[in-house]
Amino acid sequence: MAETAEDRLKRLRMRSWRRGTKEMDLVLGPYADARLAAMDEPMLALYDRLLTENDQDLLPWVLGQTPAPADYSALLAEIAAFARARLSPG
Hints:
- It is built from five helices and no strands.
- By secondary structure, the protein is an all-alpha fold.
- It has one domain: DNA polymerase, domain 1 (Orthogonal Bundle).
């Protein structure tokens, strides 16, 4: 049976909140809650692929410590900006 759009969003949210490292849970979980429902199909597919990446690679990419693969760079920049805005004081 094919995955419904609703089931896909639930799966992506769960995978965003249960990464394996608390740091990535706190970065990707709130981002997924706020942004997934508004994403179009190509962006959802890219985000789904991003979630297959290892947290030990993702965190340095989000923090800008190491260059991200080109196909993820815009999405990771958006995720990083979201996290900075959410976590900045004021």
